[in-house]
């Protein structure tokens, strides 16, 4: 076979159905595309008027009209932009992917700015064929002596073009809807779609229903506008009532003054806020405006805690507002919404390439005209530029939070409980954010104070210094210095141990012991905290987190010779194992300073975290003991009840006492299961009965 060369060809008959069916993931997106094109046409006409190439007609008002007609199964989009000539229709409409916006920008590149033009792709118009069997275009160009144009296409590759009958500059697009897309001829459905995609487009958008009955409204004559259609003038006489005065006499008083009112055709209300709050300078926005915008966009009537107004012009254009909402739910049920816009055109919610993952928990809007969108304007192209935008957003959030902590610590502490899940999640997911926020993470202690890691370390250092000063030593200073020097050479750097609480009620016994001993602990009860403390330990070698029931610290214990307690420990271990039917139960006997404490349950920090991991990954079938010892029952040798058990191990009531002490210790440690709780209640009643009968 002889060698041949050629060129690839693309057949429009084959590609057109693909464009119609697969270019857009959501069929309702055609509304955004058509209205965007209308906005561009109006923006272009405004540019021409500004440059003196066109003069607006009297009473001109920029607008886009959307008209639904369920009877005729049609949907109309009407704009009063610059319109098209027959040649332009042939060029921009019939040539797939040829953008009129691009052509306009090239022609007027020295007289206009590209950022104000929304559409840069020529595929948007063809999205209408996803819902329409046939499409008509009626248009009249702004150019002098231009003739109206009528264009028709039934969704195939054939079209017809002829002279039309439109008399006003602009374009009217009529969609003859497919039978399976008649929902788009419903007024309420269209209102929903326009609100979704076009709420902030730079041109007013009006929705109406064809052949609908005229609606009216009544206003004060002083509120009358030039464009109002007056139906009726109404004079309302003053309203009076007979009332009793201070002297007990009846008199007629005016309760409502006379006024002149006007009945008018109901004014159309735009579905688009053409100047959204994020387009303004932060200094020009009030707190109430921020709150009202939040309520309007997110339908959340709980006031946000605070917000961050993004306003950047270089090296890229980015504006937006991020809100920190007040939450009352657990972390796994938090769901935020970050709406992404391109020149006030809605693109999508929560695009992960732009919005850092941890900020998905927030609510807000971001408008970036520089985003590298794909041809359908539904997703981003893979571009390193997007990463820069994401990094900038992260930096601005971190700057806002650290600045608040430095300059307004009181407000920062007030918000902390609500914003801490966002911040901690951010530290885990974003290394740069974690570096910036590390020193500004707050920990609420058992006394209600908010402390940083530095505060906790300093507090512990002060306590250690006081303890050291109170101790006496027979060693000379030289000997002590030498010992300290030798010790420092051999021992590892001391870690700051942060004790924490996960349940203030359940762990109240341990909390009280900590308070009595002058120790402090922080409250970490959110679902995110388990992962967060592990993350912090990985970042900092000098930091260790330990739950207050992980062990009994030396501070709680009296100095005791272990050999002296060995016999008691052996006896109690045997008695409790036998009474509870737990041959492998770990029992530890200590002399606690607080004699009122009878029993405690401890679980090593490592073992607890392993169990939490198993639960997280659904590893319920595995035996937790394979990763370490189970809970340790700590008995207080200074407690009279424990002493009684040790001295009367053969008493008939000792097994019941052992079971009760075990459950009491467990209750302060974790929740009993239903069977255990039932037995505990029954046993408690039995003990009370014995007391009553004694």
Task: Give an account of the 3D structure.
The protein is built from 18 helices and 25 strands. It has 694 residues and is of the alpha+beta class. The chain folds into five domains: 197 residues, Heat Shock Protein 90 (2-Layer Sandwich); 38 residues, no CATH class; 151 residues, Ribosomal Protein S5, domain 2; 80 residues, Rossmann fold (3-Layer(aba) Sandwich); 138 residues, Four Helix Bundle (Hemerythrin (Met), subunit A), CATH 1.20.120. The strands form seven sheets. It has a seven-stranded mixed beta sheet, covered by helices on one side. It is elongated.
Give a brief outline of the structure.
The protein is an alpha+beta fold and 694 residues long.
**Residue share in helices?**
25-40%
User: In order across it, which strands form the biggest sheet?
Assistant: 5-4-3-6-2-1-7
User: How far apart are the termini?
Assistant: 113 Å
Q: What value does the Rg take, in angstroms?
A: 38 Å
Q: Which regions have little confidence, pLDDT < 50, spanning 5+ residues?
A: 97-101, 114-122, 472-480, 485-490
Helix tally? 18
CATH topology tier name of the largest domain: Heat Shock Protein 90
What count of structural domains?
Answer: 5
| CATH class category label of the largest domain | Alpha Beta
Q: How many beta-strand runs?
A: 25
Task: Provide the CATH superfamily of the largest domain.
Answer: Histidine kinase-like ATPase, C-terminal domain
Q: What percent of residues are in strands?
A: 15-25%
Chain-wise SSE layout:
Layout: H1 12-22, H2 29-50, E1 64-69, E2 74-79, H3 86-93, H4 100-107, E3 132-140, E4 149-153, E5 159-163, E6 170-177, H5 187-197, E7 205-209, E8 216-220, E9 230-236, E10 239-244, E11 250-256, E12 259-265, H6 287-298, E13 306-312, E14 318-324, E15 337-342, E16 345-349, E17 363-367, H7 384-407, H8 409-429, H9 431-437, E18 443-444, E19 450-451, H10 453-470, H11 477-490, E20 496-501, H12 508-516, E21 522-523, H13 527-539, E22 543-547, H14 562-580, E23 586-590, E24 599-602, H15 605-616, E25 632-636, H16 640-647, H17 654-667, H18 674-693
Parallel strand pairs: 1-7, 15-17, 20-21, 20-22, 23-25
Antiparallel strand pairs: 1-2, 2-6, 3-4, 3-6, 4-5, 8-12, 9-12, 10-11, 13-14, 14-17, 15-16, 18-19, 24-25
């Amino acid at each position: 076979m002889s060698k041949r060369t050629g060129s690839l060809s693309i057949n429009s008959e084959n590609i057109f159905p693909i464009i119609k069916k697969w270019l857009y993931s959501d069929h309702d997106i055609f509304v955004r595309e058509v209205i965007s094109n209308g906005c561009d046409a109006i923006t272009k006409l405004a540019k021409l008027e500004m440059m003196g190439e066109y003069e607006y007609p009297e009473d001109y008002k920029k607008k886009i009209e959307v008209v639904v007609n369920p009877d005729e199964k049609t949907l109309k989009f009407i704009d009063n932009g610059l319109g098209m000539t027959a040649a332009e229709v042939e060029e921009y409409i019939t040539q797939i992917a040829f953008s009129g916006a691009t052509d306009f920008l090239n022609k007027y590149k020295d007289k206009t700015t590209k950022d104000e033009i929304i559409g840069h792709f020529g595929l948007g118009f063809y999205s209408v064929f996803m819902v329409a069997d046939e499409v008509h275009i009626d248009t009249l160009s702004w150019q002098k002596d231009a003739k109206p144009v009528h264009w028709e296409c039934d969704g195939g590759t054939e079209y017809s073009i002829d002279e039309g009958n439109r008399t006003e500059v602009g374009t009217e697009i009529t969609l003859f809807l497919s039978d399976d897309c008649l929902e788009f001829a419903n007024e309420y459905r269209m209102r929903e779609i326009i609100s979704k995609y076009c709420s902030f487009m730079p041109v007013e958008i009006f929705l109406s229903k064809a052949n609908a009955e005229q609606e009216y409204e009544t206003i004060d004559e002083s509120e009358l506008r030039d464009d109002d259609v007056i139906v009726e003038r109404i004079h309302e006489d003053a309203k009076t009532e007979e009332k009793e005065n201070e002297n007990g006499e009846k008199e007629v008083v005016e309760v409502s003054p006379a006024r002149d009112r006007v009945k008018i055709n109901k004014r159309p209300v735009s579905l688009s806020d053409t100047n959204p709050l994020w387009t303004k300078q932060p200094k020009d926005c009030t707190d109430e405006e921020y709150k009202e915008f939040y309520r309007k966009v997110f339908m959340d009537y709980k006031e946000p805690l605070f917000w961050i107004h993004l306003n950047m012009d270089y090296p890229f254009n980015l504006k937006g507002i991020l809100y920190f909402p007040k939450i009352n739910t657990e972390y796994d049920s938090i769901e935020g919404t970050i709406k992404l816009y391109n020149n006030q055109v809605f693109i999508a919610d929560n695009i992960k390439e732009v919005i850092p993952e941890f900020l998905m928990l927030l609510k807000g809007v971001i408008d970036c005209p520089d985003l590298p969108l794909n041809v359908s304007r539904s997703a981003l192209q893979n571009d390193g530029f997007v990463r820069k935008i994401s990094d900038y957003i992260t930096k601005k959030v971190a700057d806002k939070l650290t600045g608040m902590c430095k300059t307004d610590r009181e407000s920062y502490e007030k918000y902390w409980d609500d914003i801490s899940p966002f911040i901690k999640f951010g530290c885990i997911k974003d290394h740069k954010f974690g570096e910036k926020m590390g020193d500004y993470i707050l920990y609420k202690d058992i006394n209600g104070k908010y402390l940083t890691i530095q505060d906790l370390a300093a507090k512990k250092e002060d306590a250690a210094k006081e303890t050291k000063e109170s101790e006496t030593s027979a060693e000379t200073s030289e000997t002590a210095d030498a010992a300290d020097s030798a010790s420092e050479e051999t021992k590892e750097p001391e870690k700051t141990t942060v004790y924490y609480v996960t349940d203030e009620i359940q762990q109240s016994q341990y909390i009280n012991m900590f308070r009595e001993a002058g120790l402090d602990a922080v409250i970490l009860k959110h679902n995110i905290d388990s992962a967060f403390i592990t993350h912090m330990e990985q970042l900092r070698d000098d930091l260790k987190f330990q739950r207050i029931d992980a062990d009994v610290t030396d501070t709680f214990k009296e100095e005791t010779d272990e050999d002296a307690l060995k016999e008691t420990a052996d006896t109690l271990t045997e008695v409790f194992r036998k009474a509870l039917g737990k041959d492998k139960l770990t029992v530890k006997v200590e002399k606690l300073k607080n004699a009122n404490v009878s029993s405690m349950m401890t679980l090593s920090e490592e073992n607890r975290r392993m169990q939490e991991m198993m639960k997280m990954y659904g590893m319920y079938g595995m035996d937790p003991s394979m990763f370490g010892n189970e809970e340790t029952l700590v008995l207080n040798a200074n407690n009279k009840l424990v002493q009684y058990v040790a001295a009367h191990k053969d008493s008939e009531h000792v097994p019941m006492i052992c079971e009760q002490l075990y459950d009491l210790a467990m209750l302060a440690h974790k929740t009993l299961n239903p069977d255990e709780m039932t037995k505990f209640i029954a046993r408690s009643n039995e003990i009370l009965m014995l007391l009553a009968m004694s």
